[in-house]
What we know:
Blueprint: E1 2-6, E2 14-16, E3 26-28, H1 33-45, H2 51-62, E4 66-70, E5 79-83, H3 89-101, E6 105-109, H4 111-115, E7 126-129, H5 133-141, E8 147-150, E9 189-191, E10 194-195, E11 213-214, H6 217-230, E12 235-238, H7 247-259, E13 265-270, H8 277-286, E14 288-296, H9 300-305, H10 313-326, E15 329-336, H11 343-356, E16 360-365, H12 373-378, H13 404-419, H14 422-428, H15 434-460
Helix pairs in contact: 2-5, 6-7, 7-8, 8-10, 11-13, 13-15
Amino acid sequence: MRVLLADLASTRGFVSKDTVVGGYGSRLDPFSRVTTVMAYLKKKFHDVPSVHLAYTAAILARGGHEVRFTRGAEADADVALVLTSLVDHKNETAWADRMRARGVKVGFIGITASKMPELFADHCDFMFEGEPEAAVIRLAHHSAPSGRVISEQINDLDSLPFPRWDLVREDSSRKPGKKWFTRPVGGGFPLLASRGCPEFCTYCPHRILAGYRARSIANIADELERLCDRHPRPYVIFRDPLFSEQRDRCLELCDEIRARGLTLTFEAETRLDRLDVQLLDRLYDAGFRAMSFGVESLDPATLKKSGRRPIPHAHQREIIQHCRNKGIVTAAFYVLGFLQDDWNSIAATIDYATDLGSTFAQFKILTPYPGTPMFKQLEPLLTETDWERFDGYTPTFRHPNLTDRELRFLLGAAYTRFYMRPSYLANFLKIQNTVVREWVSRMDRRVNERHAREEIADFSRPVAC
């Protein structure tokens, strides 16, 4: 059987999907000078191949099938499997229609097809509901199914073959390029050491498709060893929502990497309260060079109402400072527009983000994603009917305290305030000289005053009709 795997490139802004926002995906369509630069950098360093399609390719290849990959080009095949997203589903269904017109059977996979099947039902021959691997295993041994197919979660993740990265790139010889700061051009190699999420944040889709499961440390180390055998000093991107959930597992993985003599660098997403100085030191020795984490909001009460456990600010600062001392890149996530938010609370969160001083920061507007408890809560307030605009940067519901214009304005101000300040550049360049840092602090105050004047002028300016 000839199978074409499609992870379709978008024509608008920068779209990332697969494991981003649980698979619903995100679209950054630049709306300011700062976000234009951000979108450019994301295209260079965050456009990584799909780990779920890489697993799918491995299963099908093991079954003796011919596997090809595309980012948009149409090709003859018996079956095409399309990775779905919420933010680019129109592009995905249009491509599927063209492929079906060529006589190809088309199936959809991913969380969006699972939770929003009505968006895809008229454009395919079948779709998989759930994590795709169980259904792909059946597909590898039988002909293409029809209709909606349940794909049960696989509890023994060690039983899956390792992802075939050579089969999910348009140019099979293409490898991650030269490193810039930490992550190389082209991203790196995603790796899932676990699936699902053990936390209970009501706004997060990572836990709504399947339960939390973890691979054995030996199995993870085997995959890392395979990558090291095939690629010198690979850059690995752990895509687990909570990489350091179990401290002992992290330490065991560090020991295994060193025992096998593996030379690699890696990054991971986690919670700061699942890290301590000693663990960071051990991770660094094993190759840990970057991490992302959620701060979300400054207000602990707001976090608790959204099912997120607050992390003491002192601990956040301790971990960020130790990462800065070690040379570990940090990326903090913030959410603006919780129901309890108003102008002042969001301004306080932005101030905290600049003061915390992570290497990077990502700000998004609260978005209720289908299937989450937050969606059920906010569904009566929804104002947006175009699902592609549930992109993390667009207001989608009627906020009790802020207008859509105010939310978008504050989002733009967050990016400007964080990145357009002298101390950001000083942190980025790791400048520690006391005299220079004092001068930078004075410059920060002047820049903030200028930003405040510009923001007042911009927000006071009438909006063109």
